[in-house]
Amino acid sequence: MLAGSTGKTFFAALALRLVRDGRLELDAPIARHLGQEPWFDSLPNARSVTVRQLMNHTSGLVRYELNPRFLADLVATPQRRFEPVEELRYLFGEAAPFAAGEGWDYSDTNYIVLAMIVERVLGARAYDAILREFVRPLGLAGTVPQDRPVIPGLAQGYAGRDNPFGPFDAVLRDGRFAINPQFEWAGGGWATTGRDLARWAKALYEGEAIDSALLHREVLQGIPAKMLGPNARYGLGVIIQQTPLGPTWGHSGFFPGYLTEMRYYPERRVAVAVMVNQNRPAMSPARIASSLAELVLEAPPAR
Fold it and tell me: Per-residue pLDDT tens for 70-82?
């Protein structure tokens, strides 16, 4: 199934590898990498945004994908392939809702810009680097880039009849997605399985995918994100929550036809991932994940 925004964790991990290697600085202005582009100063808050602010959604760059003009263009040409700069143009000339670093607003646009910077530093496709550095070494055989309208093995999803991304409920028609899901890119950008996501969460939050010291020093230093829940905080590509079962680290995901919840419980080193193929399920993936975690966490530890 399509994993929605849980895919941001892959792009965040790749950026953090570059931070670890000294090739990317979290508090460097993004102008260092993109400032010479002719379009750059049309981006809201362009000269004051840092890499860290992209990763924790404090940049002031709002969602391009909910812009009415983008949605109209997507509905009019559903199989169109959007380049990253084309997506950024929906924000050009718009005022930011707050100065960089002075507010919080969840936005795929942040991760589009982050991936552009990562590709500039790498000189290669972010998808290829993620496959090489994480997906293949961890044996995530069910995880593939969401970079085309035909993704072999993809389960049918149901977006609901009030779907803002187009006049369709079932998202697959003769094996082809009703819209080209490529546009999401670093805002999510992966098709995967619940098993793979749970394995990924273990690797990510136990220091196998990124450096443990960097994880605790930078990644998990979250800021309040009330949009995600009363106790939620957002770090560098991670949602941090306090739950009745203890703290959780992870991410939620949405794409038309699919909902995802990926959670890691650090006190017991347990990961849970739930994916459903409809946008209005009887029980949310978050509730299912909590129920599954409760079964595991309340069981006596294995001896």
Answer: 999 999 999 999 9
